[in-house]
Amino acid sequence: MQNLFLVILLCLLNLKTAFAADFIVGLKAFKAQDYDTAFEEFNSLAETGDIRAQTYIGMMYFNGLSVSKNFETAAEWYIKAAELGHPHAQYYLGWMYDNGKGLEENKKLAFKWLQTSAKQGHPRAQNNVGVMYFKGEGVQKNLLLAQMWYMISASKGMQEAIENMNTLKGNLTDKEISLIKQMVKNCMVSNYQTCEK
User: Fold this and answer.
1) Distances (CA, A) of 134 to 53, 66, 127, 145, 149
2) Predicted local confidence at residue 22, as pLDDT
3) CA 44 from chain center: how many Å?
4) In which element (H, E) is residue 63 found?
């Protein structure tokens, strides 16, 4: 019985190593702009549930790389990866809901997916969550939370977030800015789990 368990374990480890190697081949091809090879490698992995490959397949359909541009198919792949927790897929899915690309525009779902991605540390999603709080789209307008997310995103070098943060700063009191700084600290120390006032 123990030998059978060891054989199964070794097979699973070899399978995982093979999948990792296939992903690396796909990634190298993608970076070299050999999109046909990348698509071939990623597609077989995506079909087996690899969320990284699913995200890349979504990106390839979204941008028309080696395949015809198809926002609906891109959305299908992003949904699969987003539901399994991939932060980039969650960001792109939120963006697609926000802009009505490949999916019917839905600001509440856009906020949901962008916030999910933001809480995993995705800097673009963090900025976009700030924008949604600033505009009151998909969520109740809240300038303090908007500035908090801008500051978090800006701390990672996101130029758009830096601009948004500096623009909004002029509309906030010193007391509010002090509170926001504490909110940023609480959010980041809690690994994005305590990000509300």
Assistant:
1) 34, 38, 10, 8, 10
2) 81
3) 22
4) helix 51-63
Average the pLDDT over 80-107 and give the result. Answer: 97
The Cα 41–Cα 10 span in angstroms is 23
Instruction: Locate 173 and state its tokens.
Output: 């009191």
Neighbours of 165 (CB within 10 A): 23
- Dig out the tokens for 122 from the structure: 């995705």
Q: Measured between alpha carbons, how far is 156 from 121 in angstroms, rounded to an integer? A: 10
- Tell me 83's DSSP state: H
Greatest CA separation found in the chain? 70
What domains can be seen in the chain, in order of their start residue?
Answer: 1-84 (1.25.40), 111-197 (no CATH)
Q: How far is CA 3 from CA 7, 79, 169, in A?
A: 6, 40, 65
Stretch 166-174: mean pLDDT = 96
